Amino acid sequence: MRISCALLIALAACGDGGTAQDARVDVDASRTMVRVHVRVDDGVNAGGHRVFFQKADSELVLATLTDADGRANAFMASGGSVSVAFRDSTTLSTDVFTLQDVTADEDVVIDLRGYPQQPRAVYIQVPADGDAEDYELFSSCGSAFISDADLQPQIAELRDCTDVADLLVRSARGRFLFRPAVPIPQNIRVTFDGAWEPPVVSSIALVHVPASHRDVIVTQRVSGQSRSFYPLGLEGGNTGALEFLRLEEGAASGTFDQAVPMPAGSTLVTWVTPFQPTTPGGLFVVDWGPPQPATAIDVAPLSLRAYLTQPRYDPDTHRITWLEADQGVDTDGILVRFGWVEERGGTSVLWHVLGPRGMPASFALPALPDPDLRPPPTAEVEELMSIKLEGGFARLRALPLLGRWRPSSDRPWPLDAPSGRVVYQSISATL
């Protein structure tokens, strides 16, 4: 017998760990279905993880568990929060992922998938580039030297690959060949053809750099579908498209040039990173778009309010607080990670929260219903990230920022459009 939500007046909402038809009918027009999907690697249990759907005032709407596919759902009004407590069966540690200010008909994705670790053998053959004898393969999942690849196919062992990869071969003469989105099953043979292309001199200009960031590191990379593939070198090394730019006292701009492959169909990504800033944390700019020989970044309108103190957890107000400068651009969203050790079990808890920017220098947290997931006064903030992105928090919420992504990881900023620019300010416990 099917029972509608209208009859279950003792419940705050209808929902379950799956997508059964019963969970898709609700009589309150102000509430809509909010869905959660926890994505994990093969062999990792996606089911049985706690999920809390809460109103904006932390009143519990529904507490449930993910189903075998990592899904859960509930009817709830906009403005609340959704939290997933993911328990690692090996370390017994818990990661809690929370999205605040959920909207109508929201799909919340927690992506915990890593890159596949099984190496893949790929055989590469290229046409000769004049008298060049050495060739090097760059890809979105590794690189390798493939000398004599013009004479016979050379094996390259790639790691961290998905089912497809972007491949670029550079000859000893500095020219390149490019093939995007190549399927790479084990032991596939990939033959490059066409004319070798020369690199293009890329000119990068920074203007109106604030005095607090005299020393700047600028990195430019060519990216494909989701990951950089040039100039990542062997063992994750860099092959030269990183520049240290020192601005002299009184200067507010700087320019440098470098040769970069610019294959059609790729994306040129430029990172601007401070080096030893005079204030805690640092300003980061990520600019991307189709390859072009000149990139100009005006830093002045991108300067966020500088952090003046380390962030901390305030148990009295259940907020993350910090001090910041009066001058600067307001941000659209906050991503914070802070942790503690459970008093009863002695295992660690790390809470990741993404939400819109509220009152200055303060970030409110939902009160989770599980006592073991309530941070003690000793909880420490590991990282606070303030983000400014065209489209505001409505665009931020759709990006895969909850999960394995970290500002300092090998996962670049998610490129969700052909071109764009994001500015963020990050401060960690080590700064």
Percent helix: under 10%
Oligomeric state of shown chains: single chain
Return Rg in Å.
Answer: 24 Å
Largest sheet: 13 strands, mixed
Number of helices: 1
- Kindly name the structural category: mainly beta
Shape: globular
Q: Per DSSP, what share of the residues sits in E-state strands of 2 or more residues?
A: 35-45%
Query: What would the average pLDDT be, to the nearest integer?
Result: 82
- First and last CA, distance: 59 Å
What is the total tally of β strands? 30
Query: Uncertain segments of ≥5 residues (pLDDT<50)?
Result: 1-14, 18-27, 232-242
Short key terms for the protein model shown above:
431 residues; mainly beta; 4-stranded mixed sheet; 13-stranded mixed sheet; single chain; 30 strands
